[in-house]
Amino acid sequence: MSHDTTARNRRMTHFDDHDALWLFGYGSLIWKADFPFLERRCAHVHGWVRRFWQGSHDHRGTPEAPGRVATLVREPGAICHGMAYRIAPEVLGPLDIREKNGYLRELTRLHFDDGGQPAGADGLLYLATEDNAAFLGDAPLDAIAAQIAVAHGPSGPNRDYLVHLARALRELGVDDPHVFALAARLPHPAGDDCPHDPK
Ligand code: BEZ
């Protein structure tokens, strides 16, 4: 079954005629901004929580042994903190390919944390919903952490994704109980005598 969402994302042309747009990152985009951006600001979106419910068959796992990566799940009243990037529309093409495994562009209202102007903007985020073929959904935290601990894909160990995200969120001063609970459950790497510190 194909998980490739590239073609559907290309048909989403909302910002094609703009000079720039805001992209909200809540997962790897927070700690891995390997694309050109004009500006970045800490930001949040309303009504969403970050969850490790999306399967990764192409980056942090394989089709036989998928990893788990972050997506957003609707929760009324919740706030999800992340990083917003102002980018040129052309930057979305390579990101569509990088995130082709079930993620679709979603229009969002984002709010900046710094109190500066403008206080918010319309923008995009990448969302993997439960109807995509790679979606894994909820599971006990111990089971999710155990899966992340062993999964490995072309982009590296799944545990690195989680550890990097937990560290980046701590550095931003963001409390995310789901992410921190998973990071705390990762077994220490063999030969590591020090308690694992996700900071
Ligand atoms: C993010 O960091 O926001 C993200 C990155 C890739 C796919 C989906 C979301």
Write a structural description.
25% of the residues lie in helices and 33% in strands. The chain has helices at 6-10, 28-31, 92-98, 141-150, 158-172, 177-185, and strands at residues 21-25, 39-56, 67-87, 104-112, 120-127, 152-153, 156-157. It is globular, with a radius of gyration of 17 Å. The protein has 199 residues and is of the alpha+beta class. The strands form 2 sheets. A 5-stranded mixed beta barrel has the order 1-3-2-4-5. It has a two-stranded antiparallel sheet with strand order 6-7. A hairpin with a 7-residue loop joins β4 and β5. α4 (141-150) packs across α6. The protein has 6 helices and 7 strands, in the order αβαββαββαββαα. The N and C termini lie far apart (38 Å). The protein has a single domain, classed as Hypothetical upf0131 protein ytfp (Roll), CATH 3.10.490. It binds benzoic acid (BEZ). Benzoic acid is lined by residues 25-30, 99, 103, 125-126.
